[in-house]
């Protein structure tokens, strides 16, 4: 056989096999759900129509598969949040205090936890999901289904590789939030203090 045809045949077969093994939502969920604990830093930019410059906040986060998320703001002010299946708690001088659970902010945090944990079935209840790319470089687009979420979000874009790297929230009113997760590592177990924070 002509080597050019042979080469083309191999390319076609490769193309077909890659189509057959296209990266799908289940694979993405499995990939994001693998790590037991993820530590990292974040930079959050809130772009408000009324302001020329974004409001930037920075901090660290701890995502624990069986516990939830610790979201620890460092600048411009220091404030610790804990997001779990039970709801959202904020730390004050006397310990963790649960926040009211029916706000748009609560919805946003519940969604955020589902995204980071790779809970695509949870996301599919509330959003139309569209995934492109492969395991090392993917983009997930979420379009809200429910009326409550449509009032808040126009679209949510999430990108990543092995772990989530950016989350962009485009709000109906024209504001947006860009969240960049940096230096994420999945090889560091929960510290004693972190275990205590989740247990309280």
UniProtKB/TrEMBL annotation:
The keyword Repeat does not apply. Keywords: Protein transport, Signal, Transport. It holds the Pfam family LolA_3. GO terms for biological process: protein transport. It comes from the Bacteria. Residues 1-22 form the signal peptide. CDD domains: LolA. Monomer. This is Outer membrane lipoprotein carrier protein LolA. It comes from Pseudomonas brassicacearum. The lineage of its organism: Bacteria, Pseudomonadati, Pseudomonadota, Gammaproteobacteria, Pseudomonadales.
């Amino acid at each position: 056989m002509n080597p050019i045809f042979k080469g083309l045949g191999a390319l076609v077969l490769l193309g077909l096999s890659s189509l057959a093994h296209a990266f799908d939502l289940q694979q993405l969920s499995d990939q994001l759900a693998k790590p037991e604990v993820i530590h990292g830093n974040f930079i959050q930019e809130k772009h408000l129509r009324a302001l020329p410059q974004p409001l930037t906040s920075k901090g660290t986060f701890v995502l624990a598969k069986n516990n939830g998320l610790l979201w620890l703001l460092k600048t411009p002010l220091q404030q610790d949040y804990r997001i779990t299946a039970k709801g959202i708690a904020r730390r004050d001088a006397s310990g963790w205090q649960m926040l009211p659970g029916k706000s748009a902010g609560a919805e946003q945090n519940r969604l955020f936890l589902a995204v980071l944990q790779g809970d695509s079935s949870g996301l599919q209840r509330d959003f139309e999901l569209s995934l492109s790319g492969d395991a090392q470089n993917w983009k997930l687009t979420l379009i809200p289904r429910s009326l409550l979420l449509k009032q808040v979000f126009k679209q949510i874009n999430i990108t990543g590789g092995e772990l989530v790297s950016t989350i962009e929230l485009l709000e109906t009113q024209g504001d947006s939030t860009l969240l960049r997760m940096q230096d994420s590592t999945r090889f560091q177990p929960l510290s004693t203090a972190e275990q205590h924070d989740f247990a309280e």
